[in-house]
Amino acid sequence: MENQIESLQRQVRQLRIALMALAGCLAVGLLVSFKSGNQEIIRTKGLIVEDAAGKPFIMMGSPIPQEKGRKRHDAMSGLVFVDSTGTDRLFMGKDGKLQIGGKLEDRNSAGWSYIINDNTGDERGGFGFADDEDRIGLGLDYGGKDGGEAIYLYASNDIAYLLMNSNTNDRVRQRAVLWHDTKNDLTQIKLGDKITDERLVMRVAAQKAVISHQVKGTNKNILE
């Protein structure tokens, strides 16, 4: 568990550095584009930066401009880095659709994110804020047709948790949960398997501690 938390902390630091570097590059690019002594404002609805071969490398807009050299054509608003095959690899902006196993799906919430994709265009990690749920999250995803979150770090006004999932479509995907609910004064750790997500539960609530495990569908307390 400690190694997973340290990995998430490293990911947050790397994302922060990448965002700062990206913002710096954009600022320098805009400054260089101005003529000496010219205080005019540049206004545009879209921007495409090409690589040496004339293929799109950076695309920006609201929405992002349609371009035949890019594989995705669903509506997205923000900034995207595209590799030489036309695959989206890095995105920052207002949430678009989620790609898993090569297929686009609607997201469960709407917000703003920083998203990293693999070489197929499937989402493999992201850091973002969901406006409609007033929460922030950091996720590291499995690849392949099942995809989905491998590790997820979540924080809202009252609840914070760390979640680890299986990479299969078993009946139960949650395998480890570290959860804290400030409003209800509840802290718990749950460990699961492919049958149940509560094979072992350690819970502290209302100044009481309980440890339980599940056997043949029945929860039995080990300590209370």
Low-pLDDT stretches: none
Shape verdict = elongated
Number of helices: 1
Structurally, how many domains make up the residues?
2
Strand fraction: 35-45%
Any idea what the radius of gyration is? 22 Å
Distance between the termini: 24 Å
Molecular structure report:
The protein is mainly β and 224 residues long. It contains one helix and 16 strands. Strand 15 (208-215) and strand 16 form a beta hairpin. Keywords: Membrane, Transmembrane, Transmembrane helix. The chain crosses the membrane at residues 15-34.
Short descriptors:
single chain; 224 residues; mainly beta; 2 domains; 14-stranded antiparallel sheet; two-stranded antiparallel ribbon; 1 helix; elongated
Layout of secondary structure:
Blueprint: H1 2-33, E1 46-50, E2 56-61, E3 77-82, E4 88-94, E5 98-100, E6 103-105, E7 111-117, E8 123-130, E9 135-141, E10 149-155, E11 159-165, E12 174-181, E13 186-191, E14 200-205, E15 208-215, E16 218-223
Antiparallel strand pairs: 1-2, 2-3, 3-4, 4-7, 5-6, 7-8, 8-9, 9-10, 10-11, 11-12, 12-13, 13-14, 14-15, 15-16
What's the gist of this structure?
By secondary structure, this protein is mostly beta strands.
